Here is the input.
Amino acid sequence: MTVKRLIEMALGLLGVLAEGEEAPPEMIVDNLDYLNAMLQEWGNTALAIPTVSRESFSLPAQQLVSIAPGGDIDTESPSSIKGIQIVDSSGLAHTVRFTTDAAIRSISLVENVTPKYYAYLPDESVPSILFSAIPLSGCLIKIQSYRPFAVFDELTAELEFHSSYDKPVYTNLAVDLAPKYGKAPRSDIIFIAKNSLDDLKNRHAAERGPDELEMPCGMPGMRQPFYDVNQG
Here is the structure.
């Protein structure tokens, strides 16, 4: 479904547009920021995000690495990180366990010994990872993360995720747009908006399983599971 059609459906629920009526381009453009703002807010909740991104990068041999365009790990900053592996030059994969800043700084570094990696994710404007040990030279880092929703700037753009998002998007957008047009959204619209988004989150929770992501037995270095540190 296009961005234009989603906005028109939201306006139709509010009675701003008659059934089957098309909105003028300036009205769609005027409400595009509301749609983008709502999706960006959803992007702060991992279960509202449709997919998990899996990426691999060369890992610099330093204890603190940034994750940002032009950073040590040159990629779009994630909304949250689900799991990290470090693959050494021999191909052995080490699952990184998450812990606290204090615990990281209390660990004594031992040179020339293959380390057990722990990580802390500092709460900074530029996302970064603080490791318990300086990674060995020649390592790769594999990151599972949740990415924020794309910002739409074209009215003909199609939503890049499953059609199951259509109803949660246009009903919740209607609720968000109501004050702008001096409208009070009907109770059934509020009910559908809330429940359709809750159903989406519940479906994602069931698909992704519990916070521990179990990996296939026998996979090198995968004796320990990933942990979702952002959802407990």
Remarks:
- The chain has two domains: 3-47+150-208, 52-146.
- The first strand starts at residue 52 and ends at 58.
- Residues 52-146 form one domain.
